């Protein structure tokens, strides 16, 4: 029986069917997309350890994989879920009972003689802040069942990525529509982004959170542990970061009449915390992935809005991939034009004489 489609039409319909089915799968898994993204990111993070233990030292593949999964739960999942819950619960408490913040604002107004804001505006700002943070931490700040499903999918995906590492990497090169050199560039970009925005940024945020918490404890600001945790999350934001924590803390101490403590917090923040941040970023940028700050900034805004907290890595990665693919397009287009100019009009293939 004769087929009504031409070979070209069949090819186009095949590609359209593949893209349509892929779109349906992504749409159906959209709620849990962060689990698969996190699994891919952690696969890149832990792969050097995996290669060292499995490929070089010939350790048992399954035992190493299980060890990595246990390490992920103990070191990353449990602490991050606890810190996220602490932050969200405290913000919700502030929204329900903003009297403490309003008291501080009134004292600050009395000390400076400047009208800062209305009570209703403060309540709205607190509600907006809680909404934003809850959206960022959507994978860990929602229901317990959703947390278990997301973490379970992430660990399940990580298990098969490591156990079937060879087939996974071969499949990427076989089915992605890029040349070998382009795949290498994309792989390098992925490593640089993960190193800079997971390992490097997490280390910078941890140091800044500890320094901020110690500074607030030293100058007797209430709840220094909580504000140190807030500083850890804020440190992921370029430019603003921890000043959003120790700046208001200095204003709080000033409103309470502790002007010396307020000045001390500002001096430590400007001289120590900011400079340590800049120094660490410069050192880590050279060792863990040279990512331009503008790529990080644009990627963070894009990624967090779409993917939540995982967007801290995925956003800059998307921007980097866009730039890599634009460079590949420019290079291949230039090569095609050069080849066209070197081919004579008769199509004989002989190079055109420059003389």
TrEMBL record:
Which residue intervals make up region (Disordered)? 336-355
Instruction: Look up and give the membrane topology term.
Output: Multi-pass membrane protein
Q: Where in the cell is it found?
A: Membrane
Q: Please name one Pfam family that this protein belongs to.
A: AI-2E_transport
Question: What are the UniProt keywords, alphabetically?
Answer: Membrane, Transmembrane, Transmembrane helix
Transmembrane helix as a keyword of this entry, yes or no, is yes
Gene Ontology, cellular component aspect? membrane
Membrane-spanning ranges = 12-30, 36-54, 66-88, 140-162, 198-219, 225-249, 261-284, 296-324
The record's family statement is: Belongs to the autoinducer-2 exporter (AI-2E) (TC 2.A.86) family.
Q: What is this protein called?
A: AI-2E family transporter
Ranked from the top, the taxonomy reads: Bacteria, Pseudomonadati, Bacteroidota, Cytophagia, Cytophagales
